Amino acid sequence: MQVPLPPRPAALTWFELCLGASQALRIGNIALHSAAMAAATGIDRQAILISPFANAVVVMGLGAAVSRGRFALARWFLVVLVGLDLIGLGGLSAGAQMLGVPFAATSGVAIVLMLAAGMLMFLPTVTAWLKHGKDG
């Protein structure tokens, strides 16, 4: 007899909200500044727009694997992406010089939201929910 799954912890709802808001900010910010980015880098504007959408697909897919599929291993892949975002904090001053303070500030908020999501997915209530009914 299988043990019924307890209700999803509220932390998972906040995890999904932080993850989604982070990606929405990232897409909007890059879309808004894509012309300036294209001019500064010499890369086609459409090519610049591919990156945030591809990133969002991967991040949201991993997030769904954690929060909907109860696939605990996906948390570690998200940790890698959060770590890469944290490394990106070092480039915010260059982003501010190249594209302006609003771009850098919005990027910083997106990174903080991603970090918050990363922390939420390791709360004890989430870990217990992911492990519920599984061996080990």
Structural commentary:
With 136 residues, this protein is mainly α. The protein is 78% helix and 0% strand. It is built from 6 helices and no strands. The protein has helices at 10-41, 45-67, 74-88, 92-99, 101-120, 124-131. Helix 2 (45-67) crosses helix 3 (74-88). The longest helix has 32 residues, at 10-41. It starts with 9 loop residues before the first helix and ends in a 5-residue tail after the last helix. The mean pLDDT is 92.
Major sheet, described briefly?
Answer: none
* Average pLDDT number: 92
Number of DSSP strand runs: 0
Please give the count of helices: 6
**From the alpha-carbon coordinates, what is the Rg to the nearest angstrom?**
17 Å
* SSE pattern: HHHHHH
Structural class: mainly alpha
Topology:
Elements: H1 10-41, H2 45-67, H3 74-88, H4 92-99, H5 101-120, H6 124-131
Helix pairs in contact: 1-2, 1-5, 2-3, 3-5, 4-5
Short summary of the structure?
This protein is mainly α and 136 residues long. The protein contains six helices and no strands.
Defining key terms:
136 residues; mainly alpha
